Amino acid sequence: MTKALLLFSGGLDSILVAKILMEQKIKVVPVCFKSLFFGCSLAQKTIKDLGLKLKIVDISKKHLDIIKNPKRSVGKGMNPCIDCHLFMIKTAKEIMIRDGYDFLATGEVLNERPFSQNRNVFTLVEKELDLEGLILRPLSAKLLPITIPEKKGLVKRSKLFDVSGKSRKTQIALTKKFKIKDFPSPAGGCILTDINYAKKLKYLFNKIPDCDSSDCLILKNGRIVWDKKIMLVIGREERDNRQILKLKKPNDIVLEPDNFAGPTVLIRGFGKEIKKAMIDKAVELLLSYSKKIPQEIIIKTSLKK
């Protein structure tokens, strides 16, 4: 039986590709890559209606290295889309070879994302990774060179499509053909495209070049204040407070209001000594974002006495 490894985000395009290939009696195995900046929650949700088993591969560590040192240009945020895509395809190729798949499939649509989904990028990916003719893009296949699985008769080109551009008319029409009732709206799943987060991350990279996953993740969880190379994180809501505690490192200092409502504040010194003046500053910030402060203030701290 022909086997295809499908890069599966959980969006409509990848759902349709799964349906297109399954209609041709091809065994489809979807794989989702997760990192610090995007996950597989959507893929896990939408895969259920397809009756397929999802492979999840964590690429966080190597992906962070790519974000720190991209070879190619980035988008408006900190998103080096071409480098990221190359890395995911490279990882998928390794799985394809190891597990004996006949080809890779993606939900890419020609010119849907002009920066990362165009003929030049498609050609670049295939040549650089030695995958010429082994990546099938069913939604745009009729506008692209014929692939090896098509030449071998493993895939019928007549049942593939010629979609191009950002319009989703063809995809919406295909949901009726394949009886897809529920499907997600287009949405960016990568936080690197968020301008505010990208600014925080870029500043972190400049300040602390050897920052790790916890440093990147904690930027999502509150207000960030820097004092030279010491970072303070002030929770905005209860969810932030919980995440700050989860991401605490052994040498971090955490302050929590005990007898009043207010934010959790974390101080991270990145190996530098956290002096009393910095703790006092953290207390001031904690109080400035708190309400109904009692006369007697009690603040819990992780600081060892």
Give an account of the 3D structure.
The chain is elongated, with a radius of gyration of 24 Å. It has 2 domains: 3-177, Rossmann fold; 194-301, no CATH class. Strands 3-2-1-4-5 form a 5-stranded parallel β-sheet. It has 11 helices and 10 strands. The chain is α/β, with parallel strands linked by helices and 305 residues long. It has helices spanning 12-23, 41-46, 60-68, 81-99, 119-128, 148-151, 169-177, 195-207, 213-218, 238-246, 276-288; strands at 3-7, 27-34, 55-58, 103-105, 135-136, 223-227, 230-234, 253-257, 265-268, 299-301. The mean pLDDT is 94.
Present the secondary structure layout.
Layout lengths: L2 E5 L4 H12 L3 E8 L6 H6 L8 E4 L1 H9 L12 H19 L3 E3 L13 H10 L6 E2 L11 H4 L17 H9 L17 H13 L5 H6 L4 E5 L2 E5 L3 H9 L6 E5 L7 E4 L7 H13 L10 E3 L4
Parallel strand pairs: 1-2, 1-4, 2-3, 4-5
Antiparallel strand pairs: 6-7, 7-9, 8-9, 8-10
